[in-house]
Specification:
heterodimer, A: 292 residues, mainly alpha, 2% strand, B: 355 residues, 15 helices, globular
């Protein structure tokens, strides 16, 4: 549950760092999930499938970047329409490629392996939590640190940040603003491709229409909540995961599931109330003429 | 005369988009080995082929128009109301509850149900506006979150306290609303109901309001240039609350109309599954938030959807061809094709485009 949201939210964070508030995460992840299944079906290799998912999603994100950066369309609007595009395209291709409707499942397909970490898996409680996940989950957490380093310690990361902070100033010192934004959207595509692969190849090896089921939007919220900061995004994604686990646990107390499922959203609303000093994002949005 | 140019541009752009959408659809059809002319003929037939299909299309367009009008108000004022879904759900639920449990003569109950839907949808939306105005919480995110909360809350109500236990009881839904409170059908045996007329009337009223009233001018000003509006004495917070209320109110009305004219009860997922709210948002985007244009765009999108069903019934092409066309439409509209081209031709536009 956590990994797809975390990966997509990291992508969203990179995008919002350059002043593009990416509402299209849901669509990106869906495309990733679908192309991972297609890749798996035709290549028969899980890792190749993940690579295909990444490649296709990056291509998809390139279109997003072209329209929102090059053609100067409103990012929010483009994001919304990309969600539709993904939903329509994947459902259409599902029918066109596999001749099925709704869901595709093939028992010959092998999903992502589960990695058991030798010593850790024997520790009673922690072992069950940490060990036995797909490689992408470990990669997701590694990427958090990687991105944290990339954004705040590397030169390229600083340039990305500069573009988000103040595009005009960044331009005046010779940073290619458009190019940086393209880079950010492509990274976002990469991450969302991974998120999609984890979604469709992680727990169950199948694709269903609209299987993202709002996860992209939750990722968007996690981005906001985490202030577009990789570590913060990780914390907020974990919060969602925790709330989700919590809601399953609470069902034992004969509480209607509706209320327990509501918890993550309520908590986010409350959390937004307390952490809302993301003024840089407001500036970035203004600079891009989006939202408000 | 500049206005003329704008009007033609406003009309031309969606037309080009429709053309490109159909072209993209044609490519998709060829790719999976279908016949373009046959598919589009079936699509046309499925949407407008005979009177029955036409009224079906218009019935489907009804909630889209209302939601679209609501979103366009917020859009004009410069806000993105992504919460139409939640507002529509609560509006639908409220009107079903009023129609079921409120005492009074039928006509009174009908109006109370409609107004209740508007009020609750509006309040839900204005709440998000209030969070933004008071606490600076991002409106896009709050409206999105409130969608989920509304859907789950409504789901709870129809699964437990309000559940219809008379029937086979497998579905989470409320009881059927009494026949006396149904919105009248416009034609015998057709699904089209009075909600369509309500939608058209509101579209015209909204057009006149935005174009000619002082408040409409303030809304437009706030959308075009918030700083100028503030300088001109427009109270952003107050206007935001008002426009968000109106925006959610339309979505709530859309939900109410769907309950009272079409389903006669609130069923879990009746708003979410057909994607009414998102299609409504698409209609707004397609028309550039013009009230009358939104109406046309909503009918167009509804036609694509009902036409898609016709395609699926009669050819091997899947229904989803229409969502491919729809999303391409939106994509090319958002890309502001002509606009950028025009800017380039005048020169000096390319510098601004890269920043």
């Amino acid at each position: 549950m956590v990994a797809p949201i975390l990966l997509a939210a990291l992508g969203g964070a990179i995008c919002s760092r350059v002043g593009l508030f990416n509402v299209g995460l849901e669509g990106f992840v869906l495309v990733g999930a679908f192309s991972a299944i297609v890749g798996n079906h035709f290549s028969g290799n899980v890792y190749l499938a993940v690579l295909i998912a990444i490649a296709v999603t990056m291509l998809f994100s390139l279109a997003f970047a072209y329209i929102s950066i090059h053609l100067q369309a409103n990012v929010i609007v483009v994001g919304i329409s990309f969600n539709f595009l993904a939903l329509g395209l994947t459902a259409f291709c599902l029918k066109a490629i596999f001749h099925v409707k709704g869901a595709f499942y093939d028992k010959n397909m092998v999903g992502l392996p589960k990695w058991n970490i030798p010593i850790v898996q024997d520790i009673p409680v922690i072992g069950g939590i940490i060990s036995g996940h797909s490689p992408l989950i470990y990669l997701a957490f590694a990427l958090v640190l990687g991105l944290q380093y990339f954004l705040f310690k590397s030169v390229l990361g600083f340039r990305l940040l500069a573009v988000g902070e103040n595009p005009v100033a960044a331009k005046s010192i010779g940073i290619k603003v458009g190019r940086m934004q393209y880079l950010a959207v492509l990274i976002c595509g990469l991450l969302c491709g991974l998120a999609g692969a984890q979604l469709s190849l992680g727990q169950v090896t199948m694709f269903t229409e609209g299987m993202t089921a709002g996860r992209g939007f939750i990722a968007l919220v996690a981005t906001m909540l985490g202030q577009a900061n990789p570590l913060g995004v990780m914390a907020s994604s974990l919060l969602f995961g925790l709330m989700d686990a919590f809601s399953i646990r609470l069902q034992g107390f004969s509480l209607p599931t509706h209320f327990t499922q509501m918890l993550p959203y309520l908590v986010t609303l409350l959390a937004m109330l307390f952490f809302r000093k993301s003024s840089y994002m407001a500036d970035a949005q203004k600079a891009n003429g989006s939202s408000r | 005369m500049l206005n003329w140019k704008g009007n033609i541009g406003a009309l031309l752009q969606p037309l080009i988009a429709v053309f490109i959408g159909l072209l993209g659809g044609a490519i998709a059809i060829v790719l999976i080995g279908g016949s373009i002319s046959d598919t589009y003929a079936q699509m046309w037939k499925g949407a407008f082929g005979n009177f029955y299909f036409l009224t079906n299309t218009l019935t489907r367009a009804t909630p889209l128009i209302l939601v679209g009008l609501g979103v366009s108000i917020a859009f004009r004022a410069g806000f993105f109301n992504m919460g139409s879904e939640g507002q529509m759900i609560l509006g639908a639920l409220t009107s079903a509850m009023i129609a079921l449990y409120f005492p009074g003569p039928p006509v009174f109950k009908l109006f109370a149900a409609l107004l209740g839907g508007i009020a609750v949808g509006g309040i839900w939306s204005a709440f998000a506006g209030w969070l933004d105005a008071r606490f600076k919480m991002n409106l896009i995110v709050t409206t999105l979150l409130l969608n989920y909360i509304a859907a789950l809350f409504a789901g709870y109500l129809v699964a437990y306290p309000l559940k219809d236990k008379t029937g086979s009881a497998a579905l989470a839904q409320t009881m059927m609303v009494d026949k006396s409170i149904w919105l009248p059908k416009l034609f015998q045996g057709m699904s089209m109901h009075a909600g369509f007329i309500i939608a058209i009337v509101f579209a015209v009223l909204l057009f006149l309001f935005i174009k000619y009233s002082a408040a409409g001018y303030e809304i437009r000003m706030l959308g075009y240039n918030p700083l100028f509006a503030a300088y001109g004495g427009v109270n952003r917070g107050k206007l935001m609350l008002a426009s968000m209320f109106a925006s959610g109110g339309f979505a709530g009305l859309a939900g109410a109309v769907e309950v009272l004219g079409m389903q006669y009860r609130y069923t879990d997922g009746m708003i979410t599954n057909p994607g009414f709210a998102w299609s409504g948002i698409m209609a707004t985007l397609l028309s550039g938030a013009h009230p009358l244009g939104t109406t046309v765009a909503a009918v167009l999108l509804a036609a694509l959807q009902t036409g898609g069903m016709g395609v699926e019934r009669n050819t091997s092409i899947p229904l989803e061809i229409s969502s491919v066309i729809q999303s391409l439409l939106i994509l090319f509209v958002t890309a502001k094709f002509s606009y950028t081209l025009w800017k380039r031709r005048k020169g000096g536009g390319s510098g601004a485009a890269s920043s």
